[in-house]
Structures are given as structure tokens and as C-alpha cells.
Specification:
The chain is mainly α and 134 residues long. The protein has four helices and no strands. The protein is globular.
């Protein structure tokens, strides 16, 4: 196999793993937001708390997605985490524009930085975690 074919296969695998882990991250974000929504309906909270809770859910989801993607890939955790965070941001940003018709709370750039940072930390931790073989 030539060097060109190796890098081409590497990029496809890296992007597909990041996309798959972004799907898991979005699922985690939605589950956390649903749980927080249930809790917040039981108590009366100001609107600023809702923004913080959704930002926390976004960070947790990006971290888990980066962790899963890097653990599956077993190398390049930082790159997998950043790609996963970018995919999560793009999908959730488009969904928020479609359904909410606005982007309230933190600015888009701040959310992008936050998600990419959490995804990259999750990727680094995922690569460096101990792998068990059964």
C-alpha cells in the first residue's frame, strides 16, 4: 500500500469515528437536557440557570463523545476530540436555529470553543485510559 493510500484510509477512519462519537455525544446531551428539564419543571428557577444547565450538558456530552471516539481510535485523541466537538456544535447549532429560531445565552464562538475544549480533553483522557482486553 502506498503512502497516499494509508493517509487517505486514516482520514476516513478518523472522521467516521469522530462522527460516530459525535452521535453518542448528541444523545448524551439530549438525555441530560431532558433530565434537567424535568428537574427544572419541579422548581422555579431564573432563566440564567437554564443557560448554565444547557452549557453544562453540552460540555458533558462533548467530553463523553471525545472520550468514546478516542478510546475507539486509540490514537490522536486531541484531533478526534476536536472533530467530535465541532460536529456536535454544528448539529446542535443548526437544530437550535431551526427549532428555537434564535441562539440565546452564550455566543456561538464561546460555545464552539467550550465544546471543542471539552471534546479535546475527553479525547486526551480516552487515549490515555487503560484498555482492557477480554
Amino acid at each position: 500500500m502506498t503512502k497516499h493510500h494509508k493517509t487517505e484510509r486514516f482520514k476516513a477512519t478518523l472522521a467516521s469515528r469522530a462522527l460516530l462519537s459525535a452521535g453518542w455525544a448528541i444523545l448524551i446531551v439530549l438525555l441530560i437536557v431532558l433530565a434537567f428539564a424535568y428537574i427544572l419543571t419541579k422548581i422555579d428557577v431564573p432563566e440564567s440557570v437554564v443557560s448554565v444547565v444547557t452549557a453544562a450538558a453540552l460540555c458533558i456530552g462533548a467530553y463523553v463523545g471525545g472520550y468514546i471516539g478516542a478510546r475507539k481510535n486509540r490514537r490522536n485523541g486531541l484531533l478526534v476530540g476536536v472533530l467530535c466537538g465541532s460536529f456536535v456544535f454544528i448539529v446542535l447549532f443548526v437544530l437550535s436555529l431551526i427549532f428555537a429560531r434564535s441562539t440565546e445565552g452564550l455566543s456561538g464562538g464561546a460555545k464552539l470553543f467550550m465544546v471543542m475544549l471539552c471534546g479535546s480533553v475527553g479525547g486526551i483522557v480516552g487515549v490515555n485510559s487503560k484498555h482492557t482486553r477480554y
